[in-house]
Amino acid sequence: MTVMTAQSGTPLDHVLLQHPGDVPVAVIGAGAMGSGIAQVAAQAGHPVVLVDAQPDAADRAVERLGATLDRLVAKGRLEAAQARDVLGRVRPHTASDMSTVPAVALVVEAVVEHLDVKRAIFRQLESAQPATTVLATNTSSLSIDAMVQEAHTGHDAASYGGTSPALARPGQVLGLHFFNPPPLMRLVEVISGSATDGQVLDAAGELMRRWGKTPVRCTSTPGFIVNRVARPFYGEAQRMVEEGIADPATLDLALRRAGFRMGPFELTDLIGQDVNLAVGESVWRQTGEDPRYAPTDWQRALVREGRLGRKTGRGVFTYAEDGSATDAAPDEQLAQRLVGGPVHQDPVARTLAMLVNEGVDLVHRAEATAEDVDTAMRLGTNYPKGPFEWLEELGAGTVRSVLTELDAHYPGGRYRRSEAL
Ligand SMILES: NC(=O)c1ccc[n+]([C@@H]2O[C@H](COP(=O)([O-])OP(=O)(O)OC[C@H]3O[C@@H](n4cnc5c(N)ncnc54)[C@H](O)[C@@H]3O)[C@@H](O)[C@H]2O)c1
């Protein structure tokens, strides 16, 4: 029988010395991400309680997990007995009151992306869980510091007499940013708030390795590594369409030829134009509306018109029943002519210089290491290379001169160079 209690006096680094079967984990939110994270933790051997406030959501997620594991057995990737064990480790739990969650060593929160909701959950968990429990959030965009600090406004204010108090143990709060779908994506961004304990970060990184993941470290900066550094991959191409330099299919082709698995337009149609725009808007707002991250009117119009991508049958391109794009007809010669031509008309030069600039600036601000930035971009976005590998290949002089030319052509700060270049 699995004992669903955390041992008292057991911080996360001591947890690493224990058998995973003795280290219970709670995942809050049984949606797309929470279900996947619960699967990863259970496959690593932990007893998992999967919590959702919606009636039946956690039970349905466990049923879906059973079907997923059956498929893995059918494909010969998992023994039937292993699948039974994994499924047996995940217990659904329906609750909106976090004091009913059994004591665990680690909580991974993956509920809606709403600061007040996450804050309220962390406060309830902190008062109900053992003093050693580590609290992680899978937020894509919210600040870890905002989550642990006192707040005077918001939906949850009433339940705290007008304020949401600061957490008592902010050293034990961090971000564990999984990518979708968690069982398949290797990258996890381990995000530190300004108060997060270094040992908690080290132990969490090691735990992620044991879960089969590749952890990278980042501070709680807007967009973390992947969602920040990737902005120009979308933004440069959209601006080139706005300026009439080329059509989306032609720009996609030019970038595929440069080694990207998908072009920015087919990729955002897959992600959802609304989802991609929301990330862009969030990074832009959180950086004080820095022109580097300004979303384009072109993408805003797509979203306003409901052209969200594959999920609505039409985004940048139109999709047939079988999922193929019916109107993506690149001009092959134009794609070839643009690359190596005037810098402001060269999609590859513009995109690579801006990706390098973002990566270099992130490291210059001491938010992540160069090695982690490269790893994150290769694993999180499938780029063929990381920004520092491109810097090495292109040379700092070339990147500098591309940015200088772009800055002269489009003044206003979007193309300002990182001081470190
Ligand atoms: N979807 C992605 O690609 C992705 C990738 C990385 C991170 N994230 C982040 O992960 C989190 C979850 O995203 P998702 O796509 O899984 O969302 P989702 O909408 O699929 O699932 C959220 C779940 O949380 C439950 N929930 C909401 N409020 C709750 C509460 N107060 N208590 C308990 N359960 C509650 C909902 O019922 C729902 O089942 C968000 O913070 C999101 O930003 C998402």
From TrEMBL:
- Tell me if Glycoprotein is a UniProt keyword of this record: no
Q: Which family does it belong to?
A: Belongs to the 3-hydroxyacyl-CoA dehydrogenase family.
* Keyword annotations of the record: Oxidoreductase
Q: Native species of this protein?
A: Ornithinimicrobium pratense
Top-level division of the source organism's lineage: Bacteria
A GO BP term here is: fatty acid beta-oxidation
Protein name per its UniProtKB record: 3-hydroxyacyl-CoA dehydrogenase
Q: Oxidoreductase as a keyword?
A: yes
Q: In which pathway does it act?
A: Lipid metabolism; butanoate metabolism
Q: Name one Pfam family in it.
A: 3HCDH
Q: Which residue numbers delimit the 3-hydroxyacyl-CoA dehydrogenase C-terminal domain?
A: 223-319, 348-419
GO terms, molecular function: 3-hydroxybutyryl-CoA dehydrogenase activity; NAD+ binding
Q: Which residues form the 3-hydroxyacyl-CoA dehydrogenase NAD binding domain?
A: 25-219
